[in-house]
Structures are given as structure tokens and as C-alpha cells.
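Researcher: Go.
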Amino acid sequence: MRRLILTSKALADIREARRWYERQRKGLGEAFEQSVDDVLQSIRQRPQSYAETAPSFRRALVPRYPYRILFSVDQDTIVVVLLVHTARDPEVALSRLRSH
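Model: Structure:
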């Protein structure tokens, strides 16, 4: 199985979203993080099953939450680059991917 790496940007995105959900309702941040963890495990098991969104990048949607996870895959490693709100301008995500 490939190694899964989360960039510092991805970790910061997840922490920020978790805090936001926790402020909305106690326990919701934890539920959000569990959904993200479930998706990350699915990505690790079947990375090629997710749609390509940009050259060399794939995306996975987080169930019940308006977020997508953007990641790249190579022979031995999966690199999670960012977590992006689905309402955000796609150009913002692309510019963040280019700076990766």
C-alpha cells in the first residue's frame, strides 16, 4: 500500500475547517475530521478510483460536508495537497496546486 503524506497546507486546511465546525456545534468538528479520515483511508486504498481534476492531481469529495481533497499519486506515495471548500473559486485551488 502506498504511503500517505499530508502537506502542511492540507493539515492547516483540515484544522481550520474542524475548528469552524466545532464552533457551530460541539462535536461537529470531530465528526468532520472523522469523515476526512475515512476519505483519506479510501484514497490510500484506491487512489486511482478518484477523478483527475488537473494534470497529475485527483479529487475526493468529503461526504456530508462541502469539501474536496486534492491529491497526487506516484508509484510509492500519495500526497494530499489541500482541502478546499466546494464553493470556493476553482482558480484559487489551482493556484494553490501550482505553488505546491
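Model: The longest helix spans residues 28-45.
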